[in-house]
Each structure stands twice: as structure tokens, then as C-alpha cells.
């Protein structure tokens, strides 16, 4: 496995073109990238992650032209793309390209697309000259990586290279949206706050997928995802004897604090790194649990609480 930097984009792109796997930084989390048009590359992604099933993956593109060559983007979808790309938003749209591996879409007639904000990611995709399929670069069921070191520790021996771009600025995965007619559905809360979408487009976002036939869904969001080794207890004001406290805001401090000022954007950026750290610390101190202070459900708080509920789900 090679550790690569800013000056090695071409090397990383060559590995992708040859069918190899490269972990690369996006503004949300590190992705585990493979050529989305190459069945073998995509199969290797599932193998490296140890994914229990073929959940569809996000195809990362470098520009709107590449996105529109793959899927139908018009109406509200195009408005969203123009407003929030590059950025922490994924759009699910009708697939039209025949070049995309069926393993990327798990055979669906829709595809999830995203233009990442990190210029390193866009340069890599552009140099590879192909859309790059990339789930978060962690083994299935573990906490998402926000540094190159997280990736090296968990997947280092299963991939060809890691492109180190420093810590991720947003820290939680992208918000997944699906437009149907005049409605926008949120399939997964994430790094783009729904309030921002509603503010910019003047359209209410439906938070829960409707349950009829037209219900858009994001398959494969296991409740047991993002699981630390330690047990997780939410909404805690203070820790029990066998717990460490992950604080939030000025009033509930803790061993680590996601944001001493109570800022959900800062808390999102710190979330996975601090979960990694406090989990390791708890294990080394012989504590069995992590207590987490309450976090309001507004802005990025919605995505943070979604991930924390998964981390706390019984396994
Ligand atoms: O921020 C992110 O989105 C990160 C970085 C690397 O870009 N990627 C990421 O990928 O979180 P992953 O594979 O962990 O999550 C992909 C999500 C899954 O929940 C999957 O169900 C959904 O996207 N998805 C993919 N294709 C879909 C489709 N056609 N329809 C509905 N949901 C889809
Ligand atoms: Mg993931």
C-alpha cells in the first residue's frame, strides 16, 4: 500500500485506471474509490469493506457535465446540483449511462451521484477520467474515517493506496436527496443541512420516505453501522462509573467535547474522530461504555443524531 500526497494525483489516477483501489479525501469522510465503470474494481470495493451485501454505492464525479452524462438531471434536481455542488450532497437520479457497472447501482435503475468539494478529490476523478464509486473507507460496520490514519489502520492492507489530504472538514457523510416531481425527499441526513436546502430552494424537504410504491429508499443503512467497541448511551447529562463522557456545549463537558460552544458544524467535523479516540481510551481504561451529551436536532445535528443512534443501536 502506498501513502500518496498532493503531488501524486497522477499516480493515484493511474492506479484507479488500472482497476486498483485508492482511498481519497472528500470534505465529508474518506472514500474507498474504484473505477465505477469497471466491474472488477467495484467488486474489490465490496471485498475490501467486507460488506455483507451489495448495497448501491455513490458515484463521485468531477463536474456537472460528467454527472449529466450518467444520469438525468433536470428540474429540481438540476436546481439542487447548481446550488449545492460541489458539496456534501448526493442526488439519486435516473440512470442513463450504459457504462456504469451494475454493481455500483446494485441493479437499480437509479444512481447516486456527488461532486465532492475537496479539490483533491475532483482532481483525482478528473485525472482518472471516469466516475469513481466510493463508499466510506472503513470496514463494514465500523466508524467512518475522517483522517488518512483512520483508513490506514483499518484498511491499509486491503487497498493499493491512500491519498492523504488531511482531516475532513465536514466530518459526516453527504446528505442524500431524491427528487420526485415537485417533492424533495431526504434519504439520509448528512453534511448539508436541510434548512439550507429549504432556505435556498423554497421547497420543504420530506424527511421520511413515503411508504407507497414510489417511496424512494436508501438501502443498506444498517442500524448497527458506525459501531464503536464500547456501548453507547445517548442523551446523557453525566457518565456512570464504567463510562467516559463525550460532551457537547458549555454545560456538559466530558472527557472530550464535540463542540464546547455548542456548534453543530464543529461537532460534525469532530464526531467520527472523537468517537475513534474516546472508544480507544475507554478500552484502554477498562471502561465499557461511552455516554454522549444531548445534541439538538437542528442543522447538522440531525445527521449527528442519526449516526449516534446507529452507534447506540443494539448489536
Ligand atoms: O459523504 C459520503 O456520501 C461518503 C463519501 C465517501 O462521499 N460516501 C458514503 O457512501 O457515505 P456509502 O456507500 O457509505 O453510502 C451510500 C449510500 C447508501 O446509504 C446507499 O443506500 C445510498 O447511498 N444509495 C446509493 N445508491 C442509491 C440509489 N440508487 N438509491 C437510493 N440510495 C442509494
Ligand atoms: Mg459508510
Please give a structural write-up:
By secondary structure, this protein is an alpha/beta fold. It has helices at 9-17, 39-49, 64-70, 75-84, 102-105, 119-128, 148-155, 194-201, 264-284, 301-312, and strands at 2-4, 22-25, 30-35, 58-60, 89-94, 110-114, 132-133, 161-163, 175-180, 183-188, 205-206, 231-233, 243-247, 256-257, 289-292. The strands form two sheets. Strands 1-8-2-3-7-4-6-5-9-10-11 form an eleven-stranded mixed sheet, sandwiched between helices. A four-stranded parallel sheet has the order 12-15-13-14, with helices on one face. Helix 8 links the parallel strand 10 (183-188) and strand 11. Helix 1 (9-17) crosses helix 6 (119-128). The radius of gyration is 19 Å and the shape is globular. The structure holds threonylcarbamoyladenylate (TXA) and magnesium ion. Residues 135-136, 144 line the site of magnesium ion.
